[in-house]
Amino acid sequence: MADFVKVCKTGDIPTGAGKTVDVDGKPVAVFNVNGNFYAISDTCLHRGGPLGEGELDGKVVTCPWHGWRYDVTTGANEMNPAVVVEKYQVKVEGDDLLVAI
Question: CB neighbours of 67 closer than 8 A, spacing ≥ 6?
Answer without folding.
Answer: none
